[in-house]
Design goal:
The complex is a heterodimer of chains A (121) and B (108).
Chain A lengths: L2 E5 L2 E3 L5 E8 L7 E7 L5 E7 L6 E3 L7 E6 L4 E6 L8 E10 L5 E5 L3 E5 L2
Parallel strand pairs in A: 2-11
Antiparallel strand pairs in A: 1-3, 3-8, 4-5, 4-9, 5-6, 7-8, 9-10, 9-11
Chain B lengths: L7 E4 L5 E6 L9 E5 L6 E4 L13 E6 L2 E6 L8 E7 L9 E2 L3 E5 L1
Classes of the chains: A mainly beta (121), B mainly beta (108).
Chain lengths: 121, 108
Amino acid sequence: EVQMVESGGGLVEPGGSLRLSCEGSGFTFSPFNMNWVRQAPGKGLEWVSSISSLSTRIYYADSVKGRFTISRDNAKNSVFLHMSSLRAEDTAVYYCAGHLYDSDGYYTEYWGQGTQVTVSS
Amino acid sequence: YELTQPPSVSVSPGQTATITCSGDSVPKEYAYWYQKKTGQAPVLLIYKDTERPSGIPERFSGSSSGTTVTLTISAVQAQDEAEYYCQSADSSGSYPWVFGGGTKLIVL
């Protein structure tokens, strides 16, 4: 069974840091491009960051650039999001998602169930 | 870069719902559609503008014309009430994923 499980969310004070993890199982993790997407309360989906299969290409949304760092460890089937200088507006459910086009052009995408991050004093 | 969706679409059960998504990069980049229900992870409905992943009912279809992509839901059911999001890339290469603002499908 394919699973993507996020962990590391919680309550943190403004200015604080948090590290999210996402571990994949039931599929071959290493070829997948990995992404973090968040949804703030009452708001829509917002893309946060992406990392390619070999970590050669990394992207960030403007809203988190300079504060968040994405990384991955293919040996542990995991992707991480280190968040620092957190603000109230970073409060959201954070989802990890992996996607891959195979050699035949068929697209596969997996999502985790999300982890809640709350930034509040 | 922005993708523009209508805030809401209303439809009666059994009818057809159409949700549009407009953006300057749409002609150059593939579009994807997701269904999002409260407390659940997004579900991919359409990829590469028109392709449907395995397990997604044929009632869901996608199309593209100019700067607009469209999600069509035929024979709408009560269980289809949800938020629907389009997603594409910024053609500059700086932002691989961009989401539209979402459309609330209301089943009357």
